[in-house]
Amino acid sequence: ELLGECTISNNYNLNNLDGLSSLTSIRGDLNLVRNSILNNLSGLSNLSTVGAIRIRNNDNLIRLTGLSSISSVETSITVADNLNLSDLCDLQPIIQNGFSGLYTVTGNKYNPTQQDIIDNRCSDSQIDTDGDGVMDADDNCADTPSGEAVDANGCCPSDLAKTYDVVLHYTNAISGIDAWYEFQDTFTETGVREYRTSEVSHWIGGLGVGVAGMTILDDCGSITIPKQNLFDYYINEVEGSGYIDGDTGIIYLDYDICDDGECRVYSSVYTPVN
Predict the structure, then answer these.
(1) Residue 215 burial (CB count, 10 A)
(2) Counting Cβ atoms within 10 Å, is residue 78 exposed (0-12), middle (13-18) or buried (19+)?
(3) How far is CA 193 from CA 72, 134, 180, 261, in A?
(4) For 73-151, where are the alpha helices, taking DSSP H only?
(5) What 3-state class would DSSP assign to 150?
(6) In whole angstroms, what is the distance from residue 189 CA to residue 191 CA?
(7) According to the model, what pLDDT value does residue 1 have?
(8) Are 38 and 65 contacting, i.e. CB atoms less than 8 angstroms apart?
(9) Whole-angstrom distance, CA of residue 212 vs CA of residue 198
(10) More confident residue, 156 or 169
């Protein structure tokens, strides 16, 4: 039993607390602060009571293994600014045993409330923020709209890499242009729910410079054309949005190409080629 406090701080070569394995009680505070390579607390596995817990700025700490044997903390629990700490489940016995002191958990990779810990949401591996059935730790698409079907990575299935018949309406209010075009466009998958078209606007076949087409993103049938330079070359900026008809697979896109206050406006319909 330690009658006073236990402070371990600013030890840049300390990666464990195995030397404290015989410690069963600390009457004062347990302070673990700025131990940059400390990666586990299993040396505290025989500790049952402590006055207060303060664990701060231990950047290599991922979980609080070793604290699960503590049944009583008298005054406060502070776990803060441990950048990689994502699992606080070892605090469950303390919280579930009726802890009523000051609880401060902030600035960590994951920061559960006391109720989260009681409800078994004490680790980021147990959290499903968007409610799609895939835990955040495994979810590559953490903002899936409610009710959408997803794959094992938490993403809506997306299969836009195909060829389309396109009908394009082009207008330019300044020059008075109002024209229609028909052509084929092929989408190539370039990332997760990310595609590159082979054409952009009315410049069929490109202009011989830069990268052909434009980048589009598919978010469960909602299409975003993120702001990008025309052909990844000119200062003209392309930006827009659209959607996919879930029954037909037809894509509707509206986008502008703007430069120095003048905008060309495009509305287009992409019908998959059978």
Answers:
(1) 18
(2) middle
(3) 49, 17, 29, 31
(4) 92-96, 114-118
(5) coil
(6) 6
(7) 82
(8) no
(9) 6
(10) 169
